[in-house]
Amino acid sequence: MRKNLLAIFLTFFKIGAFTIGGAYAMIPLIRREVVEKRKWITDEDFLNGLAAAQSCPGPIAINLSVYIGLHIKRGWGMAMAVLGTVLPSLISIMVIAALFTQYAEFPLVRKAFHALKPALVALIAVPLIQMTRQAGLNWANFWVPVLAMVLVGLLGISPIWLILATILFSVLQGLWFAKGRK
Amino acid sequence: MYFILFWTFFKIGLFSFGGGYAILAMIQQEVVLRHHWLTQSSFADVVAISQMTPGPIAINAATFIGFQQAGIPGSLLCTFGVILPSLLLMLAITLTYLKLKKLPWFQNIFEKLRWLTLGLIGAAVILIGKGAFSDWFSVAVFAVCLAVYLRFKPNPIYLMLGAAAVGMLFG
Fold first, then answer.
1. Chain center to CA of B13
2. Which of A42, A76, A156, B166 has its CA 20 to 30 A from that of A147?
3. CB-based contact, A148 to chain B, within 8 Å
């Protein structure tokens, strides 16, 4: 499998150019390209990267690009992945800002989004079902993501509190086990 | 002006957790309420355009606001500002990960974070779903997409293009 920088750039450019709706809509496409098709990183590293990208401040798509780029080819890989993710945005937004500021009001665009939005929900929901296995979910810990989903999605609580609580809990758990072994 | 644009978006990138939607809220705080670069209604346009254009929502919004404030250099500066904290922090996190990923206590943190990850994606499904289901047409599109995606596992790009075409014709 070739890992040259151009391939990294083009892969991320394609992902950036063809996904609407932000990082969560990109996840299935990134996974398909980077894990399944090109086998640049393992599924486990990808899922851990997703967890890290969500736990770090900033745009999740950029965080994930940095992580994956570094895994593939160190600093240059990171630069290419981030550039690829950012460029489609830069180009399309500059064109819209310069020429069509009423873009979101165009009847044809509105009609397209009438169908695109529910399609997007399906697109994000399906990998969620598929990822439950790799994430190590079972009947005993299933309440964790469900609770997080309710707290963040319905009650509007910032994910940062859940991230900090999770990290704190797992560090304490780690210390507890280390002590138990002595 | 250039420096203020860059610095404002640097802060936005540094202090927003949870991706695009959290960043939009932060942009509103800084750009509308604090600096008065945009009115509330033109901010609503920025939100719509950012969600309806390819690419990360936060990058779209930063590029758009930067362009309105200071042309192409403004676009570049705002975008660079919003991603710079990500570059530095994720670089540190990833290098730490590569170094420590064999250690059990470190793996344990990621195991627990992975559970949380699914919850946060679920929350995104709820947030996007709130604005997506307005009538029977959208419910039908959702059902068809779900069935097609589960059954045939097509490239997500084709699914999106197909949905957009269906919307333009029948939406």
1. 12
2. A42
3. yes
